[in-house]
Amino acid sequence: MIVQNKIELNTTGFNDIVDITSRIQDNITDSKIKDGYVLVFVPGATGGITTIEYEPGLLQDLPEMFEKIAPMNKSYFHDKTWHDGNGYAHLRSALIGPDITIPIQDNKMVLGTWQQIVFIDFDNRPRQRYLHIQICGE
After folding, report:
1. Pick the CATH number of 2-137 from 3.30.70.1290, 3.60.60.10, 3.40.1650.10, 2.60.120.460
2. How confident is the model at residue 15 (pLDDT cuts 50, 70, 90)?
3. H helices then E strands: how many in the chain?
């Protein structure tokens, strides 16, 4: 069986990190799928999905790391093409990736004790995002 759904998020951009773990688990619980996997995907090129330990230290460390790798105040060729000032956001998104797949056992995600699923909005403005959820299994 395959169950599909969406999660709507309103974000502030600029490395807004949103814990989506419980919202994904709610979708799995409602699906009644006992064993399988869940795929979470963000359409767009300035957001990313990954796992972290969602705690205050990492909520500061992660944006600092991105600033070192792809700084906001640098000139990017993308910005020269589109004049939207978010070239850094596209690069950060490419590093993280737009999706994640997590196994499901006994109607629960298989995650580590301190592991949460997060969506990161790298864009340079607030956004309304829709994450696509696809739950597959039996």
Report:
1. 2.60.120.460
2. very high
3. 4, 8
